[in-house]
Amino acid sequence: MPTPATGLPASVRRLIADSRASGGPEIEFYDDLPPGELPGEVQSAVACIVEELLLNACRHSRSKNVLLGLARDEDSVCVQVQDWGVGFEPEKVEPQRLGLQGVRQLVQRLGGSVEIDSRPGMGTCIFVEVPLPDGSGPKSPRANEDQEERTVTLAGHRLDRRAR
């Protein structure tokens, strides 16, 4: 979990380092969060979401590469985790698979949304949007979200849930 001293990006970098040390896939991380802390509940929730989604991608996808993006605009924080692995059928996820269920429940409790784009053999892209409680705050300097297409541009890279 992030602390005020470390912040979310540093916590994510530690997760990535731990994954690499244990032989996990290459994880490309785009951090487009502006300086400063997210509100406490949102920061903790996003840390849990990132940890679960990365763990799932590393453990189940069999992908050699995983992409993780974080961005913030005036109203929300966005998380995108994408792999090019075995994929799955989201509608057939068994209820006992608590990881994705837990992410969905946490995001729902915060009033956000989770979109899963996956097909067997085509990899997986999960896009999570968590609203900020007050709807204000600094915007990611390079984050441009297109609500209809559900894309986000981080560090000059367009992350699209349909991109493979």
What's the structural blueprint in terms of helices and strands?
Elements: H1 7-21, E1 26-32, H2 40-60, E2 65-72, E3 76-83, H3 98-109, E4 113-118, E5 124-131, E6 145-146, E7 151-154, E8 157-160
Parallel strand pairs: 1-2
Antiparallel strand pairs: 2-3, 3-5, 4-5, 6-7, 7-8
Instruction: Examine the coordinates and then state which fold CATH places here, giving the name of the CATH topology.
Output: Heat Shock Protein 90
The strand order across the widest sheet is: 1-2-3-5-4
Helix content: 25-40%
Mean pLDDT equals: 82
Beta strand count: 8
In the CATH scheme, the class would be Alpha Beta
Shape: globular
Q: Beta fraction of the residues?
A: 25-35%
By CATH, the superfamily comes out as: Histidine kinase-like ATPase, C-terminal domain
The domain tally reads 1
**What composes the largest sheet?**
5 strands, mixed
Q: How many helix segments? A: 3
Secondary-structure content class:
alpha+beta
Going by CATH, the architecture would be 2-Layer Sandwich
From the N-terminal CA to the C-terminal CA, the straight-line distance is 31 Å
What's the SSE pattern? HEHEEHEEEEE
Rg is 15 Å
Report low-confidence residues grouped into runs of 5 or more: 141-150, 154-158
